[in-house]
Each structure stands twice: as structure tokens, then as C-alpha cells.
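note to self — DONT lose this again. spent like an hour looking for the file last time. sequence + predicted structure for the chain T wanted, 546 res
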Amino acid sequence: MIFAHMKFFSKIKYPILKAIDVSGLTFLSPVVRLCYGEEPRVQMKKISQWILIPICAIILFIFLWAYGSTVVKTKSGSVPGPLETLKAGESISKFGNYEKAKEEAYTLTGPERDEALKKAQARLGKMDPIVKAATDQVGGAKAQYAEVIKKRTSGMTSRRDALKKSYSANQSARKASLAALADTLTPGNETAYENFMKEVKDHTDKTDLEKEELATLAKEIKEIEDEKSDDVAKALFAQTRAAEERQFLQKQIDQLTTQNKGLKIETAQAKIQEDARVLLTLTGPEAVKAAGKIAKARSRLVKTEESVYAGPKTLGYQIKRSILCVFAGFLIGAFIAIPIGILCGLNSTFMAAMTPFIAIFKPVSPIVWLPICLIIASAVVPSPDDSAFMDWLWEDAWILNHYDINPAFIASAITVALCSLWATLANTALGVASIDKDHLNVARVLKLGFWPRLFKIVIPSALPLIFAGLRISLGVGWMVLIAAELLSSSEGIGKFVWDQFNNGASDSFAKLFVVVFVVGIIGLLLDRIMIVFQRLVSFEGSPTAI
């Protein structure tokens, strides 16, 4: 049995190493090799280099970030540290869970709705004391911290008041002296006037110095008064959490009662049935009026049956929409770049013709492309509600019909395509132009036509470099997309960033830091995905597989 297990583990060693290599997670290779006892000293050195040192670097970064957050001050307050950013991430996650629960409550019916309503009402009944306790804690923490600040600034405040009184008396004395000196001036006596001007300048300089000293002291007092208390921040955080939960429960109860889709449908159906019974007893104009009323009620009922929960967009929704948009733009760019790149690689004349366009359009910023794309998209789809294409995207298109596809989405996707296609185009042209001449000679010997030669020799040989270009393009597209969404107000991560920037809430700054890590992690995952595809089509030993 033991021998069989050893034989099994021996067999899976190289498949594991191959999978690690294809996935781009090569830093795990030394761990696997060490487990199999292969050159332990060498593997430990590689583990230290590629795993332990990066972990130490991350720990150092977190430490420097935590220290820097206490030093750097902005108009929005201190820079959020790791803990504040983590709390903001938890807040975003909790908001998403709340919205998901409200969406589920909107569609619940029968015993499930009754059970959910019972739980929500029971929890809401417990929230008032919790919110009150949290509010009292905030008030106590603020009062306690105000006393601390008062003690710290009492000496400085007394000194400021004493200096202000002293300086005011000095200034009054100097002004009286200048007034007396002015009365003694003899017209035409230049020496006396020069001495008088010196006294005036001396008075002005002293007054400015006194004002500057008072302003510096007042600034120091203000800086101490503006310092944030950790205890107050914790109390405010607890109060916000409690208030948010109470508000969520109130909204959830609304979705389970007055706003519930199932109850609305039941009520509307009952009313239509009642009106239909009344209609059977009417004649003439009254029957026409009642029939019209029933027709309108049925129309409203259809809309209610088709309705979905219309709550605020969560970051999870924004992320999925952004990924959808970047892949839409990426695919558009790939469909444009790969054929043109192949033609450029096959024909030097065509390459010469395309070079001016590549040189001119490649450096253009997405900020320039986006307004142009928005204008064109708005012209092509002037009224999204009346557009057959938009109806198809909303109702029939797979995946797309779950998201709010509008001209801003289309413009953002096209902007991504226009900014990201160049790397794919250049790499495709290079890959096609670099095909071994022996392969092309074999194609001539076999008398292959253009299309067989293209699909059997040219494209397969150029695939490693094509995918290297696609990998770069996807990374560029992801960076471009956030700016495009921010400027176009298209739903997505970019709009989430803009909303938080304009929000002004106490944790908005920290939520921006959360988005930094979200965007970075998603970008890393997209890059890893492209690495897998790139290595799957790369030849053994090819530099593009690195």
C-alpha cells in the first residue's frame, strides 16, 4: 500500500510542475520540488527569494503605510491606514449583503416571506436600544475627548489671550506715540519726516510680527483641536453600523410588505377580479369607463410582474459590469487588430500603408477618444428605449441582458478597443513576419492556397506572439476602462470611484483605497488568465512562454 502511494505521488510530480508553469505560478515550483526532496538547499534558496522576501516586503509596505497614514494630513482628514481600509472593505461587503437580502425580500412569497418578515421585525425591535447605546457612547467619547483637548490647549489659549492683550496695548501705545510725533512735524523738514517714516515702518513691522506670532499660536491650537480620537472614531463606527442595520431592516420590511412584488401582484389581481365582476353589471358609458380602467390595471400588472428590484448598485455589480465592458472592448480590439496585424506581417506594402495610421493614433489618450465615442454612440443610438439593437442587448443577448447596457457602456468599450488594440496589432505583425521561411517553403512545395496556408502555418506559428500582444492589450484596456467609466458616468468601478469622491462620507476616502486593491487584484487575475492561454499556445523553450 505504501509503495503504491509513493508510486502515485511520483507520477503526479511532473504534471503538478507543468500545471504550475502553465498557470504562471512558478514561485510554487520550489515548494513542490522540496516536498519531493529535490536539492533541498537550492529549493530553500528559491523559496526564500520568491516567497519569503516578497512576504517581508508586503509586511514592510503595510508598516510604512500605517506609519505614513498618521503623518500625512489632507483636507479630507488623515490618509486611511490598513485598519481603516479593511473596515471600509467590510462596510462595502456588508452593504452588498444588505442589498442582496432586500432583493431577495422583494420576490419572496408565501411562508418564506412570512418567516423573513417575522425575523426582520424581531431584529428591528432590538435595534432601538442598540442605536441609543451607540449614540450615547459617541456623545460620551466626544465629551471626554473635548476635555482632553481643553487640558492640552488651556496653557496655549491662556498664552494667546495674554499676548493678544499685551500686543493690543503695545499697538495702542505706538499709535499714540506716532500721533504725538505727527503733531510735532514741521512742513519742509525732510529729516523730521524721514524719522517719522522710520517710526511708522517700525510700528508696522512690529504689528506684523505680533499678528504672525498670534496666527502661529492659533494654528497650533487648531491642529490640536482637529486631531481625531481613536475612541471617538470607534464609537462613530459602531453607531454607523447600528444605524445602517436599523435602516436596512426597515427597508427589508418594506420589501416584504408594501413594496413586495408578490403582494402587489396579488392585490392587483384581486382588484382586477373585483372590477371585472362590477363590469358585468354595467352598460353604456359606465361599462366603457370600467373596461378602460381594467385594461390599464392589467397593463400595470404586467409591468409589476416583469419588474425587478431597483436598489442602488453595489460594488460587486460594478465589478462584474466593468469586467464585462473590458472584455467587450478587448474582443472588439482583437477582431480589428489580429486581421490587420496578419496582413501587415504578410505584406510589407500593406505594412507601409498602415504605419502612418499606427504612428498617429497609437499615442492618442483615452480622454480624447471617449468624448468622440460618446458622441458617435449617442448619434447611432439617439433613443435607447426605441432602438431595436438596445432592445436585443437588454432582452435577448446572453449575459448582457442582466446589465444596464447603454450608449455610455458602448462608448467605454469602444474606447478600450481603440486604446488597447495596438499591442496586439504590433505583436501579430511581428509574429507573422517572423515565421520560419522553411515553413513557407514547405507550403509552396505542397501548393497550399492562401487560406490553408494562413490557418495551417501562419496563424499557428504566430500564436505565441499574438497572445503576448493580447495579454498586454487586456492590461492596457483594464487601466483605460476605469478612466472611461469615471468620465462617462457609465456604471462600473470608475463610477463607484467618482461617487465616493463626491460623497463626502467619513469613510469615502478609505473606500477609494479599497478600490485601489480591488482594481489591482482583478488586473492581476486577468493577467494570470492571459498568461495561461499564452503558455498553452507557446512552444517549449519559446521566450514568449516566460
